[in-house]
Structures are given as structure tokens and as C-alpha cells.
Amino acid sequence: MAGKPVRPVNAIDQTRRMLSLVTYLRERPGARVEDVARAFGISEDELVSDLDVLPMCGTSFRGGDLLDIDTDGERIWWHNPDDVAEPLRLAADEATALLVAARAVSTLPGLRESDRQALLRATAKVEAAAGEAAGASSRLSVTFESEGGVFADVDRAISERRRLWIRYYSPARDEVTEREIDPIRLVSVGHTYVEAWCRRSEARRTFRLDRVAEIRILDEPSAPPEVELRDLSEGLVQPAAEDPEVVVEVGPGGRWVAEYYPHDSADELADGGLRITLRTPDPTSLRRLALRLGRDGRIVSPAALADSARQAAREALAAYDGVEVQGEHGAHRAHDGQ
């Protein structure tokens, strides 16, 4: 039934399935949704999720023919299979990007050996076809962030539906915490993340893999509550309506905040700055933004957060100047070397 949340998916398995789906649909124009889902052993919701991604794929990195695939809920239609089937011609930069990416993926610890060998064979064919254009790719390499098998452990936990224990560094709080999480999926939006149900906070959280200091796969089964997977096309940070509201005023030099932070409104100020209203599940994380802005911005509300940001600024100055810091909770003296 449409509308139900899809089950957690292994990213590698999904990629393999979608590649097979392209061939399957080309040979079966107007295929019924229920028949295709049954053939691939997945739910109709999972199939529709795949179909939402396929139209973003095509034959060129810069505007070639995309897969014109859609569905009316009962049947699946591919409107341009012949156009997409034309021989692929790669420019030098496209060939380089493709070869570098393929070699990087082949090193992923979660990749099945049969898939790794298939990818290496395909890479060799592309390299031969690209000729001199492939030369630059041999001088480039990509190293994935998740050292020490973090990616592999997360991918395995998702496949086997097992819980994870992690030690995780949070830069917003500058602390390392221990958590048990039920992984839902791996996502890549600039960095690689695992979206999971956190048993410590009893809420859905997203963890960046390169901030995982230690990880263990537990014997307990992973059992996250049924949650609707978020559409990440608009970015990873998507504040919810129930998140606390924060108002920030920035000068002309701080207008970039409106470009980088999702916000509800950004009203012009007389001095050329902006009054920005935004929502965040963790308002205290914005103290770091206030310190970065310096004279170019300030937190207006809530009052407690504004006071906290001012106190953080005083303490930062004290660390440099050796001055006495007077805050709401009393005074203390910065280190003076005595």
C-alpha cells in the first residue's frame, strides 16, 4: 500500500537492483507496478522509491538525456528508451571523473567480491575506450572518510538488521558520547552519514561517519520505529515545525547565514543586514555561529541562548586577554600563567 514507510535498505543492494530495473523496464513497456515489485522481491513502496531516483540518472554528467520514466500508480512507462540507448560518448573530464569514482568505490569494504571484480572489469573497459583521456585519472585518488571499517560495519548492520554501539564526537557540544543506535540507511550529502534511531535520545538522528570514534555491531536486533524516510533533495538539515525558534540579526557581512542555514524568514534591515528566523532541534549549537559572526551578527532570541552566546564570547576573550570574566553565575579569572 502506498504511503507506508519503506524498510531499511542496503545502498549497494539498491544500486544493483536499480541497474537491473533499467534493463527490465526497457524490455517490458507499460509493466504493471505490482508485477515488477513481485519480480524483484520488494514492496511497491520500495519500487516507487527507486522510480523516483531513476529520472535523475542519464547519459551525461552535464545535461545529457535523463531517463524519462514515470508511473500512474498501476503501470510504469519509459518514454525515451531509444534515445538513452544511443552509444555513450564521454568527454575527457567525464571519463576522468567516472574512472576515479569507480576505483574509489571498488575499495569500499562493504562491497561483495563478485561486485568488486565486475566493477574492476568495467573500469578497465572504460579506461581502454577513453584512451589518452584516462591518463589524468591515474594521478587522482579518493579516500573515503570512514576509516577503520566504519562504513563496512554500518552497511553490515543494516543488511543483518542489527543494533550498533558507537562512540560519537559532537562538535556542537565538543564532547564524545556513547550511544546505541538502530541504523536505518546510509546517505551521502557532501559527507557520508548513517540515519538511525538513537536509543539514547529516543529519536531519529543522523551521524557523520568520520565522527564515529569507535563502533561495534551488537547481537541485539535493530528495531527502529516505522518512520517515513525524509526526502534529502533539499539538504540534510531539514528543521521540523516543532523545533525551537531562534532569531538572529546579521549585518551586511553576515548575509551568508541566510544562504547556508534553512530558515523560515529573512527580513531586510536598514543597515543592509538581515533579521533571520530559523528552527533547530539544538539551539545551543548556534553559539558557535554567534562566535564566528563576531561583530557581524548576534542572537536576538530566545533570551537564554543570547545570554549564553554573550558569556561564551566573554570567556573566549578572557582566554586571549587574561581579563576577569563576569557572567550571570559569578566571576572567575582566566588563566594568567600563575
From TrEMBL:
This is Helix-turn-helix transcriptional regulator. Signal peptide: none annotated. Residues 243-317 form the WCX domain. It comes from Streptomyces sp. R11. InterPro entries: CBASS_pafABC_assoc_protein, PafC-like, PafC_HTH, WCX_dom, WYL_dom. Residues 14-127 form the PafC HTH domain. Pfam families: HTH_PafC, WCX, WYL. Residues 150-216 form the WYL domain. It comes from the Bacteria.
